[in-house]
Design brief:
- By secondary structure, the protein is an alpha/beta fold.
- The protein has a single domain, classed as Glycerol-3-phosphate (1)-acyltransferase, CATH 3.40.1130.
- It is about 35% helix and about 20% strand.
- The chain has helices spanning about 1-15, 45-60, 90-110, 135-145, 185-195, 215, 225; strands at about 20-25, 35-40, 65, 80-85, 115, 150-160, 165-170, 200-210.
- Strands 4-3-5-2-6-7-1-8 form an 8-stranded mixed beta sheet, with helices on both faces.
Length: about 230
């Protein structure tokens, strides 16, 4: 019951924010019996929502995601979101360690699970490009996670198309079976390719959003009345 309500809230927010959400390119080739880490860009408030939708509509996998503000929105736990509080306190560090252990256990016991991971570490403006992130973070995660975990770079881009609301586009690079230090390069390539794409390049619509007034209203029948003001 709670899970369904949270899923409904996520879809409602996305419909309100975007004209449509779409995937660009072929669907990722991923083994169904191995866990996946989706490492993604983080430029938009709704990135977590969008990647949840990607898992639901295209990849058809349960997901988990780490969230700094989990304490403010704990109901997202119903769809796999886990606390990852910032700060140097021992309590914050202990909660992060608990989330890492829980995630590793989930990937082992439910290998169809996908982890959504933002390696840049924070939400930031698109004009800042791709922030640097330590390659060793991927290596540390790989040591915790099952050996058959696959890694998939995913870029997100909010495109202004002339509609009343923007279109959210997602695209992925090639998956790889282990971190090799080229994760930032892969993510940058996926981001650049997506920024050069057009909404018409989308290969699958993941969600239709709310139509703008130009798509809903036609008041041409009022023209004779208003011609007197010309």
């Amino acid at each position: 019951m709670v899970k369904r309500l949270v899923e409904w809230l996520i879809r409602r927010d996305l419909r309100r924010a975007f004209r449509r959400v779409a995937w660009v390119g072929p669907a990722p080739a991923l083994p169904s019996s191995a866990p996946v880490v989706l490492y993604a860009t983080h430029h938009h408030f709704y990135d977590g929502h969008l990647l949840w939708l990607l898992l639901e509509e295209l990849l058809e996998r349960p997901g988990t995601l780490w969230m700094e503000d989990w304490d403010r929105f704990p109901f997202f736990a119903a769809v796999g979101v886990q606390p990852f509080p910032p700060g140097d306190s021992e309590q914050a560090a202990a909660r992060r360690r608990a989330t890492l252990r829980r995630t590793a256990r989930r990937l082992r016991e439910q290998p169809q699970t996908a982890l959504v991971y933002f390696p840049e570490g924070r939400l930031h403006a698109p004009r800042e490009g791709l922030l640097p992130f330590p390659d060793e973070a991927f290596e540390r995660l790989a040591r915790l996670f099952p050996d058959d975990t696959h890694w998939l770079p995913v870029a997100l881009h909010v495109a202004q198309t002339g509609d009343a609301r923007p279109t959210a586009l997602l695209a992925g690079g090639d998956s790889h079976d282990a971190p090799d230090g080229r994760e930032r390069e892969r993510l940058r390539a996926a981001r650049c390719a997506l920024q050069n794409a057009f909404p018409d390049d989308a290969t699958r619509t993941l969600l239709g959003g709310r139509r703008g007034p130009d798509e809903q209203w036609d008041l041409s029948w009022m023209a004779p009345f208003f011609e007197r003001y010309l």
